[in-house]
Amino acid sequence: MGKRLRREARSISRRRLLSQAGLALAGTASGITPAVLRDLAHAVATPATGQPKRGGTLTVSQSVDINTLHPWNGTLNVWKVTKTNIFDQLSYQDPTTFQVKPKLAKSFVWTDNNTSLVVALPSGVTFHNGEKLTAEDVKFTLDSIRDPKVGSWLRGFVAPIKDVQVLDDTHLKIKTETIENQLIPAFTYVDIVPRSMGTDLAKKNPIGSGPYKFVEWIPNDHVTLERNPNYWNEARAGHVDKIILRPVTELQTRISQLLAGDVDLVYDFSLQEVPRLRADKSIAVAVVPPADQMFLVYLNMRKPPFNKLEMRQAMAWALDRQGFIKNFLAGLGRVDNSPFTPQHWAFDPKTENAYSYNPDTVGKLLEKAGYPKGRGLNFSFLVPSGYPEFKQISTLLQATFASAGYRPAIEEVDIAQWAARLNQTKDFFACVDYPPRGSTDPALTYSAGLFFPPVPANYLGLTPDMIPGYVDEIRKGATTLERGARKSAYTKVQELWLEYLPGPIYCHRSTAHAHRPYVSGFVPHPAFQQSFADVWLAK
Question: Rounded distance, CA 446 to CA 460, Å?
Answer without folding.
Answer: 14
